[in-house]
Design a protein that fits this description.
The complex is a heterodimer of chains A (72) and B (269). Chain A is mainly α and 72 residues long. Chain A has four helices and no strands. Chain B folds into two domains: 111 residues, 2-Layer Sandwich (Gyrase A, domain 2); 117 residues, RNA Polymerase Alpha Subunit, Chain A, domain 2 (Beta Complex). Helices cover 22% and strands 35% of the residues of chain B. Chain B contains five helices and twelve strands. Chain B has a four-stranded antiparallel β-sheet with strand order 1-2-12-9. In chain B, strands 3-8-4-6 form a four-stranded antiparallel β-sheet, with helices on one face. In chain B, helix 1 packs across helix 5. Chain B is flat, with a radius of gyration of 25 Å. Classes of the chains: A mainly alpha (72), B alpha+beta (269). At the A-B interface, helix 4 of A face helix 2, strand 7 and strand 9 of B.
Chain lengths: 72, 269
């Protein structure tokens, strides 16, 4: 849904690193290098960001559309 | 006991501790993970939530946000003089979160929290709490308390606290034929070829996996991996709630308290 605040396994704070990670990977950087730069070393934390899909962005489109349908 | 600092920064600390034993190291590790208190949100009152995230989902996310902790000012709720289930100024901090949006989608960050104590604030300002579509709104009040890692993981002050034996890697130059298989297989790149012998560098990184021994084709093996049972590498990585030094000091004073209590009981009865 939305990026987890912490790593499920070890509890490291990851939520604040997601936006930089996704932006840099979208711009074409190598994901493993970005994770190293962000100081995410353990594989439990790395899979958290690597495998995350921000589904809330897809769901929220329906709410944005709903706003336009509502009478003024 | 002899302690050297190998690596130190804001959130992590790596120590080489000599002349001790596994029992002591494990005591330290267990106290750090389960007994050292830290601050986290415990109760959430949701006044209004029209976001896509359900109330319980939102409360769970809010609870996991690590808060900078002031151990000297606040009491654990069970030890506080107020004896109140709700808490008082000495054992509870209230944080308010209000966010709404008119005509565009926004992300609500941990920086939107307004804390009654400017010391107890989220560790990072950029943790996304929720996303709001136009005309959606969140209003909530959260109560943070001190707690222990054994009660819930959100109160654990560390994201990693571990120790390992001090590794000893020895290459027998008489048997070694410099095939280089051990250099290739080592996951931590501890071995290098230097001239006509295999050299060992940063031996502290060795994980004692012994892959190099399996890779060596010689019989008997040309290298030996062992460890010193009285020396340890102890590493601690804080979630940011307290400095690693403060966590260790806290753990030691808790251990001291436990031992003192034990001794007092022993003398009286």
């Amino acid at each position: 849904m939305i990026v987890p605040v912490r790593c499920f396994t070890c509890g490291k704070l990851l939520g604040d690193k997601w936006e930089e990670f996704s932006r840099r990977v979208r711009e074409g950087e190598d994901a493993s290098k970005v994770l190293d730069d962000l100081g995410i070393n353990r594989y439990c934390c790395r899979r958290m960001l690597l495998s995350h899909v921000e589904i809330i962005d897809e769901i929220i489109k329906f709410h944005e559309a709903g706003k336009n349908l509502r009478p003024p | 006991m002899n302690i050297q600092i190998i690596k130190k920064n804001d959130i992590s600390l790596r120590l080489l501790i000599e002349d001790t034993n596994a029992a002591f190291m494990n005591t330290l590790r267990r106290i750090v993970t389960s007994e050292v208190p830290s601050m986290a949100i415990d109760d959430v009152v949701i006044i209004e939530n029209s976001s896509t995230l359900q109330d319980d989902f939102l409360a769970h996310r809010v609870g996991l946000v690590p808060l900078k902790t002031d151990l000297d000012t606040y009491n654990l709720p069970e030890d506080c003089t107020c004896k109140s289930e709700f808490g008082c100024n000495l054992c509870r901090v209230s944080l308010a979160l209000e966010a709404e949006t008119e005509d565009h989608t926004i992300t609500v960050y941990s920086s939107h929290f307004k804390s009654e104590n400017p010391v107890v604030v989220p560790v990072s300002d950029r943790i996304p709490i929720a996303k709001l579509a136009p005309s959606q709104k969140i209003r909530l009040e959260a109560y943070a308390r001190l707690g222990k890692g054994k009660d819930h993981a959100r109160w654990q002050p560390v994201s990693m606290c571990a120790y390992k034996y001090l590794p000893i890697v020895i290459v027998n130059t008489k048997l070694c034929d410099l095939c280089g298989d051990c250099i290739k297989i080592c996951p931590k790149n501890i071995l290098t070829k230097a001239g006509d012998k295999i050299e060992i560098r940063n031996v502290l990184d060795c994980t004692l996996c012994q892959d190099c021994i399996d890779a060596c084709k010689k019989n008997p093996k040309a290298l030996e991996v062992s460890w010193n049972e009285n020396s340890f590498i102890f590493e601690i990585e804080s979630t940011g709630v307290l400095t690693p030094e403060r966590i260790l000091k806290g753990a030691l004073s808790i251990l001291e308290g436990k031992l003192k209590e034990f001794l007092d009981q022993l003398v009286v009865k």
